[in-house]
Fold each of these.
Amino acid sequence: MGFGSIKRYLVIIPPLMWLGLFFLIPFFVVLQVSLSDPALTRPPYTAIFTWDSWFPSGYIGDFENYAFLWSDSLYWRSYANSLKIAAVGSFICLLIGYPIAYVIARANSRTRNTLLLLVILPFWTSSLLRVYALIGMYSPNGFINSSLSFFGIIDTPLQLMQTDFAVYSGIVITYLPLMILPLYSALEKLNDDLIEASSDLGAYPLATFWRVTLPLSISGIIAGSLLVFIPSVGEFVIPALLGGPDQLMIGKTLWTEFFNNRDWPVASSVAMIMLAFLVIPMMFLRNTQGLKE
Amino acid sequence: MKLKTILMATAAFAVASAAHAEDKVLNIYNWSDYIAEDTIAKFEKETGIKVTYDVFDSNEVLEAKLLAGSSGYDLVVPSASFMARQIQAGVFQKLDKSKLPNLKNLDAGVMGNVATYDPDNEHAVVYLWGTTGVGYNEGKVKERLGDDAPTDSWALVFDEGNAAKLADCGISVLDAPTEMIPAAMKYLGIDPRSTDPADFKKAAELFSSIKPHIRYFHSSQYINDLANGDICVTVGWSGDIFQARDRADEADNGVAISYTIPKEGALSWFDMLAIPTDAKHTENAHKFIDFVMSAQITADITNYVWFSSANTPALKLIDQEILDDPGIFPSDEVKAKLWVAPVYDARTDRAINREWTTVKTGQ
C-alpha cells in the first residue's frame, strides 16, 4: 500500500466515524429494542441477550412485535397514508419549485444571488415558527378568515385548519427550499447552446422544454423530490399542528405507541419498517442512476 | 507525563467538588400554565437557587422522559395515577420528610386519597388537584340550546343532538384517552373505573357518534380558544377553564365562560411533586417542595391558576371567589360523586388507546 492510498483512507475515517456514531449505533439500538418486550422498568423494555458475566450467553429476542404490526390494519393504513401525503407534497413542491428554480438559473448573476438568498432566507427561522405562522393565517379568527369577512366575501369562517390543504401547505412552506436548491443547481449547468440548437432545429419552446430542459434536469428533480419526500414521510409536527385528528400518519402512530402505550418495542418496530420503506426505494434509485452515469 | 498530571488534577477536582454542596441550581418540569407568575422569582430570591423551568402538557410526554432516564430534571409533576407505575419502574426516590417541615400543612384526607397510588406518601406530595369536567361559553350555548341547555350534565357534549347544535361554534375534548373514555363510560352508566375492553368499546362508540361535531382533540389549546370565542364547549381540566374565563374577563371581549362538574360525576386527579431517582439537585428540590407547601405560596398559586390545593392553612389566604366556586372547591355532595383513576396495566393501556385512535381516525 502506497503512501497516497493511506492518506486516502485517513481522509474517509472522520465521515465513517460520524456515520457509525450517529447512524449505525442508533440503528442497532432501535433494532435491539424492536426485538425485545415491554417491561415496567427504566428503560421500559427487556434485554434481548442473557449475560454470563462479560459474555452474552443466550439470545431471547423475537419478532413478536413485527408480527403484531400485521395483526392490526392501523399500521399499514398509516404507512400508506404517510407515503401518499409525502408523495403528493413532493409533487406540489416540484410544481412550485421548478419554475422558481428555472427563473433563478436563467437570471443574471447579480439578481440570481439575491433570489437565492430569498429562497434560503426562511431557513433562518425555526420551521416550527413557520408552521405556527400558518396557524395564525388559517385559524377561524386568523388572517385569511378575518380579511375575507372584512370584505364581506364570507359570513362564516372557512375551515382551513385541520384539513389536508393545511398539511400540504405546511409541507410546502417547510420543505420548498430543499426542492428548489437541487433543481437550481441542475438547471444552472444547462448549456444555453442546447436550447438554442433545439429551437434552430424547429422545436417549439414547449417541445424544447419536454425534450431538452426536463431530461437534462432529471437529476435535480430526483434529488429535490427525495429531499422533500423522505422527511415528509416521518413528519410529525406538521400533521399534529395543522392536520385533522382523522388523518392517520405513521409519525402520529409511532407517537401513540411510544408515549401513550409506553410500548417502546412496538414503536421501534414501526420505526424499523418505516426505515425499510425509505431505504429500499432509495437504493433502487441509486442503482438506476448509477447505471446511467 | 504532562497529560497524566492534568488528568489526575482533573480527577482530584471532580472528587473535591462532588463532596462539596450541590450547585445552586434546580431544574423543574411542570405542566403548562400551572404556577403563579411570581413563585419562581420569590423562590430564587429567598434561596439564591437558580431555577430552570420547563413545561409539558401531557403525562405521556413526562413519562417517556422519566422512563428513558437521565431526564436532567430535579423535580417533576406527574398525575398520581401515572406516578403509581412510575414508582414501580423505580423512577422516583423517597422524599426525606425531615427536610419538609411544611408537610404538616397538607390535608390528611387528600394525602390519604393519593396513598392508594403511593403507600405512606413516601415518594411525593400533592401539588394541586382538580377535576375533568365541562367548560362552556354561556352566551353561545344558550343561543343554540335555549335556556334549558343541560349545562350541568355530560349530556351537553355526549348527547348527539346537543353536540350537532354546538358543532358550528366549536367543541373540543382533551387528547387524553384515560380521562375521556371513562367520562363517556360514566355518562353511559358504566363504572368509570372498569378496565373491561368491552366497556371501552361502548364508550368509544359513543364518542364516534359525536366525532363529526368535535373540532379538535387537544390538551392545552382550548384555554386560548375558549377565551377568544373560537370554541364554545370543551371537556377540559377545571383550572384551565377558569384561566380561560379569567383571560376572557381581562380581554373584556364579551365572552362569559363557566365550568361545571357534571352531575353524573367526574374524574378527580392529583398532580404530585416528586424527585426523579437520578436528580442531581435533590437538596434544592426538597427546598422547593417545602417552599411551595408554605401557606402563602400555595394560596398565591391557587389564586392564579384556579386549581384546588390540598393545603389547609392556605384556605384562609385564597380569594373568596375561588373558595365559593363549586367547580374548584366542590361541596361534599359533589365530592362523593368524583372518582379517582385506576392504575392501568400495559394491556389495558393499549386497549384504551386503540379505541381512542379508532375514535379519532375512524379506523
Amino acid sequence: MATETDRRSGASTAVSFPDVSGGQLLVHGGLVLSIFLMGLPLLLALVMSTQTTTEVYQVTNLQIGSDGLSNYETALSTYNLGQYMVNSFVMAAVIVVGKVALSLLAALALVYYEFPYERAVFVFVLLTLLLPVPVRIVPLFQLMADLGWANTLLAITGPYIASATAVFLFRQHFRTIPSSLVENARLDGVGPLTFLVRVLIPMSRGMIAGVAVITFVYAWNQYLWPLIVISDQSKQVVQVGIRFLQGASQSGLTQWGLIMAGAVIALLPPLAVLIALHRPLLETFSLQQK
Amino acid sequence: MSQITLDGLTKQFGDVEAVRGIDLTVESGEFLVFVGPSGCGKSTTLRTIAGLEDATEGRILIGDEDVTGLDPAERSVAMVFQNYALYPHMTAAENMTFGVRSSFESDAAMQERVQEAAETLDIPELLDRKPSELSGGERQRVAIGRALVREPAVFLLDEPLSNLDAKLRVQMRAELLELHRELETTTVYVTHDQTEAMTLGDRVAVLDDGRLQQVATPQELYDYPDNRFVAEFLGNPAMNVLSVDVVEGETTYAAEHAEFRVPLPDHHDADLSRVAGSVAQFGVRPEDISVRATESGRQTSDGTAADESATAPQTVGEATASQTVGEATASQTVGEATASVTVTEPLGESLLLHCDVGEDSLRVKTQPRTAVSPGDTVVLGFDRDRLHLFDPDDGTTAYHSSPKGEAAPTRTVAEMQD
Amino acid sequence: MTETTKPYDSTLGAALLLLPTLVVLVVFLYYPALLTFRLSLFQTLLLGTERAFVGLENYVGLLGSGAYHGSFLISVAFAATVVLGTLVVSLFVAYLLFQVEVGESTYLVAAIWPYALPTAVAGTVLLFLLHPTLGIITHYVEALTGVELDWFTSGPLAFLVVALSAVWKQLGYNIVFLVAALNNVPTTLTESAKLDGVGHLRLLRRVYLPLISPTLVFLVVVNTIYAFFGAFPLVDLMTSGGPSGATNLLIFKLYRDAFEFSSLGSAAAQSVVLFVVVALLMWVQLRVSDRYMHYGA
C-alpha cells in the first residue's frame, strides 16, 4: 500500500497542477473540503484555547484571543496537566517498550523454535483478542487490589504489555525473512538471542516502528481502566485529566478556553508520533490486512 | 583435508521419508555433486551433513569424527545457499565476518583474511557495500567469500548458481572449479541441473526418491548408467528406451523389435542370460543413432527436399547409399530400422528428429543442416558400442554393449576418420 | 520445496521466550476472564464483602430488566449508526484519495490524522463546539436551519452527537484501510470499465465495493467493537448516559453498575454478554475472510 502511495508522492510537492482536468479539479475540491471539515473542530478548538472566558462566551468570536498561551500555562501548572502528561508518557513508554520486547521474544520462539504444541500456543495467544478489558474488568480491578497495585504504574501498564496483535505482526514479518539467514547463523553457532539482536531487530525496524506507533496511540488513548484503577489524582493520566478540567470555572462560568487548551495538549503527542512515523505505520497496517 | 562418510543416512519428516539409507564416501579434497529431480532428497542430504537437519537413522563422519549428533557449528562446515543468505543491513565485509568464531587471534588477522578472500574472488572494492547495492553475481561471490573466511574442512553448496542468469552461471561455474583446484577443500554441491553436475563434479551422485542411484565420474555415469533412471535423467535429449525381445541369434544374442533387429555384441563383461528369451528395455541415446535416407524417402519428400537443397550444403539426395549422416560412423552401425520422421527440431549445433518406428517413437540427433523433413522415411542404424538393456521390472541395467573398463572406451582419431 | 526443520529445538528455550507473554496473558487476561464467568453466578452483598451463589439469576435479571434491554438496543443502534456513518464518510474520502492523480500521499497524511485523536479529546472538543448555548457550530447550524439543537435535553439529538464524535475519531483508521484496499484493485479492471463508459457511482458500487468487501467486513467489525467498547469516554464526558438513558451504552451501564452501585455479580454477567458480542463479531470476520481467501485462491 505504501508503495502505491509512494508511486505518486514525487508529484505531490508540485505547486501547480498543469494537466488537471475538470474531473480532477472536482476531486481536489472534494478532498480539500473533506479534510477541512475533518480538521475544523480542531482549528476552532485551537482558536478558542487562546481566548479568555469572556471571549469564549461571545459565541461567534473567532479572533485569536487575548489570553495567548496563558490557558496552556494554567492548564499545565494550576490544573496539574503537566503532571498528568508525564504520567501518560511514562505509562505509554513502558507499554510500548514492554509490548515490543515481549512480543519480539514470543515471535522468535514461534517462528524459529521447534517445540510441542506450537500451534496451540499461537492460538492461545490469538484468542486473547476475545478478551478486551470490559470483559474482565471487575475481577481485574479486584486482582490489582489484591496485588497491592492499585494507584500504581504497574496497574495501568502490566495488563497491556502482552499482545496478540503485536505477536501476530512480528510473526508474520519474521516468516518473510528467508530461513537460510538463520541457518547461516546457526552454522556459525550464533545463538537465538544474538540472532534476534544482530539480525532480526535490524531487519524489522519498520515493523517495530509501526507496532510502536500503534501501541503508543492505543496506550495514550486509555481512559476507562485508569479512571477505575487510579484514584490518586496526582497519578492520573492525561485523558482522564481532561475530565478534571471540566470542573474549572471562573465566577460560575466554565473555562472552556482552558479546557480546549487541555484537549490540544492531550492530542499533541500521538499526533506528533503519527506524523513522524506515518510511513512505517502504513506499512504495518498493510501487513495486518494480509 | 577431510573425507565425508555417510553410513545408512536416513531422514524422515513425519511419515515422509526424504532420504532412505544413503551410503557414500566423499574423498578428501573431492568435488562431489548431488544431482536429481526436485524432491529427490539431495538438499535434505546436504542439510543433514551440515547439521541443519538431524539424521533419523545412520551416521555422518567428517574426517574420522562421528558428527551425527553434533551442532552445525561444531562440524567445521561452511554452506553457500541458493538465495545467498546475506544480511541486508550489513556490508559485504560484515556479512563475511558476522558469526565467525574467534579462531582469529586478532581483529586485524580476521580483516586480513577477509581481504584475502575478497581478492581471491575479485571483489575487494565491494567490501563496504550492502547486498542491495550488489548484483546477483556479486552477492554470490560475497556468500562464497563468507565460506572462505571460515576456512572449513568442508564446503557445502546448495544450488548456489540457480538464481543467476545463464551467462553468469557458466562463468561462475568455471570460477568455482578454479577455486576448488586452488583450495582442494572437500566440496559437496547440490544441483538439479545436469550440465552443472557433469561439468563440476569429480564424481556425480544421482539421487531419486531419497535413494542413491549411482555415484561415478560424469563420463562413466553417461556411458554406463547403472539403471534406467540414471540413463534417462542424464543427457539431453534423453535416452530412447523401448521394449524389445532378447533372442538368441547365430553367434550372439540380438534385440528384436517389431521393426528392427539389433545384434548385441558379446564381451567378457556381458551376461545376457538374465534377460535372454524375455522382454527387456532397450536403451540408446539420440546421438548414437545414425540416419540414412531411402529411395522411397527421397520420393515422398521430393518437393520439400528440392526446396531445401538450395540452401542445405549436403542433402540426402547427394549422399551415396552407404553414407550415413548420423554421428555414429558407418563401421560401427548395426541394425536397420525404417522410420518415418514426424517432427524436426533444428538445435543449431545439431538437428533433432522425432521418428516413428512402428508403435514406438525415437529421438535421433543428427548433423545440422541435414535435409530431412517431416513425413520423410529414413533408415536408422545403431552404434554397436552404445547399446544398453534394462531389466523391465526393476530398471536395473542388464547389459552394456561395450565392456566397462577402468577407462571409458575411446575411439582413436584413426577410427573416427575411418 | 524441500521440507525443513526449524533451526532451534530447545523446548526450554522456547518456553523461556514465551514465558513473559504467556504469564501476562494468563494472569491479566485469561484468569480475570474466567473469574468474570464465575462471578456472574454470584450475588454480592454488603459492597462486595460477601457473596452468595445464585446460579443464572444475574442473567435472568438482565433478561427481565427494562433498563438493560434499553441499553442493549441503544448500543446496537449506536454501533449501527457509527459503522454506517464512518464507512460512508471514509469511503467517500478514500475514493477521492484513490482518484486523485497528484498529491495523494500529502492528502493521505492530512486525512488520517484522526487516527491519533484520543476519544476523550474528541468528546471534549465536540462537547464544547456543539454545546447547545455556547457551541459555535450549533450556533451556525441553528441559524441556517432554524432548528433548535438542545441535545442536553433531547435524547435522540444526544445520541447523534455522541455518534458523530465516534465517527470523527474513527475516520483516520478507516480511510487508511480503504485506500489500501482500493489501491489493491487491479487497474486493468478499472480501465476496462472506464472504456465501457461506466460512471463513477456505478463503478464504485459494481466493481470496487464487491472487490474490497473483505476490508469492509473487517472495518464493520472494528467499528462495531469500537462502538461497544471504545466510546466509553464520549458518554462519560458528554452525556453521562443521559438524557433519560438515551446514550446509556452497555459499557457505561456496566461501569456504573460495577463501580458506582457495586452490583458486581450483575456487572460480571454484563461482561459475559459483551464477551459473546466480541466472539460473534470475530467469528463473522473469520468466516467471511476465510470465504474470500478461498474465493481468491
Amino acid sequence: MASGHMSVEEVKKHTRIYWVIFSSLLLLTGVTVGISYIHLPFTYAVILALVVASTKASLVALYFMHLISEKAVIYFTLALTAFFFVFLIIIPWFIPWDFATH
Amino acid sequence: MTHAEHTHSGHHEMPFWRKYIFSIDHKVIGLQYGITATFFLLFGFFLMILMRWQLAYPGVEIPFIGKALTETGALTPDLYNALGAMHGTIMIFLGVVPMAVGAFGNYLVPLQVGAQDMAFPKLNMMSYWVYFVGGVVMMSSFLMPGGAAASGWTSYPPLSVTANNAQTVWLLAMVFLITSSLLGSINTIVTAVQLRAKGLSFMRWPVHVWAQVATAFLLLLAFPPLEGAAVLQLVDRVFGSSFFLPSGLYIDGAKASVAGGGNPLLWQHLFWFLAHPEVYVLILPAVGVISEIISTNSRKPIYGYKTMVYSILFLGFMSFVVWAHHMFMTGMGVTLSSFFQATTMIISIPSVIILTTLLLTLWGASIRFTVPMLFALAFLPMFAIGGLTGLPLGLTASDIHLHDTYYVIGHFHYVVAPGTLFALMGGVYFWYPKITGRQMNQFLGKLHFWLSFVAINFVFMPMFLMGSKGVSRRLYDQTGYSHGAATQSWNVIMSTAAFVLLLAQIPFLYNMFTSWKWGKKVENDNPWEATTLEWAASSPPPHENFPTPVEVYREPYSYSPTSRKVRPQFSQQEA
Amino acid sequence: MSVQIPYIDEPHPVTGVTNAKLGVWLFLASEVMLFGALFSALITLRLGVNDWPHGYDILNVPLATLNTVVLIFSSVTVVMAWASLKMQNLSRFRTYMVLTILCSFIFLAVKAVEYGHKFEHGISPATSNFYAIYFVITGLHGLHIIGGIIVNAYLLGPGSRMWKTQPERFTGRIECAGLYWHFVDLVWIFLFPILYLL
C-alpha cells in the first residue's frame, strides 16, 4: 500500500528496500557500461542493453513508483498506454526507404 | 458540506476579472471555450467563403473586400493555399475540438457526474489560457511576411520544412494547443472517475460522460506523438536538421542543400497517429450529445445502453490502430496496407452499432420535435453518409482513384460539419436553458435548422460526384483541366449554398445573444424532462453546482414505459 | 470558497487513489507517448542509414555514466523524502529534498559541459541525424529536469507550509512530484544505453 496509512515500522522496511534497489541499479549501470566496452555484435549489444535497461526501469517503476502495489485504475491506464506505445515503436520497421535511394 | 447556508452568499462578490476572465469555475471556463471556439469557427468558415468564391469564379475580384486582400482583388494561388491550410487548422484545432471537448466537456461533465467543479480547477483555467495563447499565436501566422502557413493542416514535409516562416509559427501554436488539450483531458478523466456522486456507478454514467472520457483518453495518448513530431519539425526548420528531409532532395529542379538522411514518411506516421484518433475526438462528444437529446426527446431509454457504451470504448480503442489508411498512396507496402485496411473495416462496425442504437431508440417513441431534436434527427443520416462514404477510402483499391479528390473532402465534412457541428448546435439549444435559465426562440431555431440543413447538403453532396470525376482537392482553379471544366458549374452551386449556410447562422447567433436576456424563462430546472444529473442543478447553476450533494438512484434515461413519465437519476420516486 | 473537491487528501473508496495521483499517472502516460514518438523517430533514422555512428565513439560515456548515477541517487533521495514525511520527520524530508535538487543541478551542469564540448567543435543538430536526435531527446529530457527542479524547489520552500495545515495532502504532493521525478529518471535509463552505449 503506497498511499494508505502505513505504520512507521512499515515505512522503515520500505526505506531499506529503497537502498537495496539503489545498489542493484548501480550494479546494473556498471554492467551495461561494461558490456559496451566489449563491442559485441550489434544485435546482441542491442538486446543486452535493452534487457538491462528494462530491468532497471522495472525496478524503478515497481519499487520507487510503488507500481508493485498500485490500484487497478492505474494499471488499466498504463496497460492501455503500453499497448499504444508498442504500436509507436514498431512503426519504424514499416517505413520503406527505397524511395530515398532511387 | 457543513456550511451549506453560507454557500449562496458565502463567496461574496469576486472582482470581475476573477469571476469571468481568470475564473476557475468550470462553467465559466466552458463558456469561455465556447465563445472563443465560436469565433474561430466563424472565422474558419469565412476563410472558406473566400476560397469558395475563387472556386466558383476563378480569378474574379472578390466583392467588397477583395481589394483589401490582394492587388487584383482576386485570391492569389499562394493566398488560396494559405487559406486552405488555415481553414483546416482553425476548424479542427481551434474550433470543433475546443467546442466539443473544451466547452461541452467542461460545462457538462462535472454537472453530469454531480461534482461541484473539475478535479483541478486551476489546471482547468490554465488549459483554457494555453489554448487562448495557442489561438493567438496561430492567428499571428497571418501577419508573417509571405502570409500564413500554407502547407495544409497536415503539414507534410518536405514542403512544410522548406516553407516560409509562418510554418514555424504554426508549429509553435500547435505545441500550445496540444499542451492545452493534454491538461484538459487529464482533468476530464479524473473528474469523471473520482468525483462521481453517491450512487453513480460507471454503468450509470450518461453516454455523454462515457464519450467525453473516451475522447479524453484519445487526446491524452494520441496527441503527444504529434507534439514530439512538431518539435522535430521545429528543429528541422530552426536548427537545420533533417529528420524529415531525405537525401537527394530536389526542389524546383535544383538539389536542395540539406543534410538529408531523414524520412518524410516518419512525419506522416506520427501525424496520423494523432490525426486519426482526432477524427474520433471530433465525433465521440457529438455522439454523446446526440444520445442525450434523442433519449430525452423520444421519452425512451437508449436502445442498448451497454452496447452503446462498449461500442464507444471499442471505437476509441480501434481508432489508434487505423491511422495508416491515410497513407495508402505513400508506397508503404502491401503488408501494412492490408493490415490497416482490415482494421479500418473493423472500426466501421462499432460506428454502425452506435448509429443503430440511436435509430432504434426512436422506434415506438413518442417523439417531441423540439429544435435540438431536429438537429439530432438530422445528425443520424448525415453521420451515416459521412461514415459510409469512408469505406471506399479505407479499401486500398478504391482509394487509388479517390485519394486526394473532392470525394475525401465530402466524406470527412459530412462527418464533421452536418455531423459533429449539427450535434453541437443541437447541444447548444438543448443546454441553453440550463446555462441561462431561458429558452432560445423556437421559430428562429427552426429557421436556422432548415436553412442550414438544406444548404449544407448542397455544399457537400456535389463533392462526392466531383471527386468521383477525379477533381483534386487542392486545385486553385480547376477549369484548366477538362474534367474540372466539365464539373465547374457544380462549384457555383456549392459556393452559393456555402454562402446561404453562412447567412443561415445569423438567426442562430442572434437567437443565442438575445435569448440570454429576453428569452422565455424556464418554469423549472428540468424543462425538457431529462434524466441526468445536470438537470438537478438550478438554472443557471450556482458556482458550486449542487449546494447540497446529489445522490443517484438509477441508471440514466429512465422513463416509464406506459406513461412516458420521467424518472430522473436524482429522484428517489419511481414516478 | 465554498466549492469543495473530495478525494484531495484521502483516496477514493472505489478507485483507491487520490485525484492528484490519478492525474499524475495520466500525465505520465502522455509523457510515455511523447518520448515514445521520439524513440520511434530515432529507430526510424537509424534503420534508414548504414553509417549510423556508435554513441561510445563520439559521445562522452564516463560523463553520462556519472549522470546516470546522479539521477539514480536523486530517485532514491526523492522517495526517501516521501518516506520521511510518512515517518512524520519534516527535517529529514528537507535534507533529502535538498539532496534531490542538488543532484538535478549536478546533472544539468554535467549536461552543460557535454553540450559545451559539442558546440566548441561546431557540432549542432544540423551536423548529422545522430546529433539531431541526440540534441532533441536529451534537450527535452533536460527541460523535464528543469521542470522537476521548479516543482521540487516549490515543495521544499513555500509549498511545505502545507505540512502544518494538511499533512496528508502535502505527503500526497511529494509522492506525485516523486512519481514525476522517477519517470524522468526512467527516461534517462533508456536514453543512456540507446544513445551512448550502442
